[in-house]
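Appendix C: a fully annotated inverse folding record. The material below is reproduced so that readers can follow the format used throughout the book. The structure is listed first as tokens, followed by the designed sequence.
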């Protein structure tokens, strides 16, 4: 079941994984954007600089931090020009082979079970995203997957990378934070009239939702390979509904698409070629 809650530094990438890098990026400023995907990646042990994270203070000081559910959101910016794929900003991006993630969106067991105070819960990134999007839409959704398909005006900042590409140019990464999510209607300071910023329909194809507890073969088939691999590396994958589902549909035996009903295209584009959001 989807999670319901009721009320920086990063090493530069080593190469592009054999894919051409996206040379365009989401420029700094406010842009119309659409939440196009909500993916639950399962529970993963927190890792930083290739080492499992431990508590730095308190009664658990020195003890390893428990695995946490990670949520992969994709915001597409459909009005931004691109040269490979529509430009997006994502959360919980798998990074490297050591279990690290960029721009994590974690959910603790206590939060998912509504067992912490609202004051403490509101400090979490999950609640910050939920509260910001509800404020922008005037809704009272309890889960992030309910926002999929909705449009927003999102403030973006840029970060220039330090590791140059082969042509000598420096990559520019686009970043957003929950407090940068705004409503699409605003009052024109000159005319004093309320104006609406149109949000174009998404240009790419995505898996709208992958629910860890209630997965479907259709949603699994829409996931790019690197997210499938990430899900299979979750500490709670063994015996999970996802693993049990795949027993009935082993990898490599999926039905091929036909001319009238083509199989969905898969994007194998690795995390390092995306615009990389940071905290």
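Designed amino acids, in order:
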């Amino acid at each position: 079941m989807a999670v319901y809650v009721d009320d920086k530094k990063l090493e530069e990438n080593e190469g592009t994984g054999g894919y051409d890098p996206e040379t365009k990026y989401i420029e700094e400023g406010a842009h119309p954007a659409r939440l196009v995907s909500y993916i639950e990646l399962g529970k993963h042990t927190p890792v930083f600089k290739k080492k499992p994270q431990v508590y730095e203070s308190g009664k658990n000081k020195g003890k390893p931090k428990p695995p946490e559910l990670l949520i992969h959101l994709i915001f597409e910016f459909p009005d931004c020009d691109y040269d490979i794929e529509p430009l997006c900003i994502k959360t919980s991006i798998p990074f490297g082979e050591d279990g690290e993630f960029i721009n994590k969106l974690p959910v603790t067991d206590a939060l998912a079970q509504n067992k912490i105070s609202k004051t403490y819960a509101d400090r979490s990134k999950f609640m910050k995203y939920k509260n910001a999007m509800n404020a922008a839409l005037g809704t009272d959704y309890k889960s992030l997957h309910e926002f999929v398909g909705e449009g927003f005006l999102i403030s973006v900042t840029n970060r220039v990378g330090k590791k140059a590409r082969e042509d000598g140019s420096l990559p520019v990464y686009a970043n957003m934070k929950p407090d940068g999510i705004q409503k699409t209607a605003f009052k024109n300071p000159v005319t004093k009239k309320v104006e609406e910023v149109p949000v174009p329909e998404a240009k790419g194809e995505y898996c709208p939702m992958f629910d860890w507890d209630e997965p479907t073969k259709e949603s699994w088939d829409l996931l790019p390979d690197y997210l499938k691999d990430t899900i299979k590396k979750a500490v709670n994958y063994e015996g999970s509904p996802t693993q049990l589902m795949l027993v009935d549909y082993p990898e490599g035996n999926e039905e091929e698409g036909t001319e009238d009903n083509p199989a969905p295209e898969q994007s194998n584009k690795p995390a390092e070629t995306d615009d990389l959001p940071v905290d």
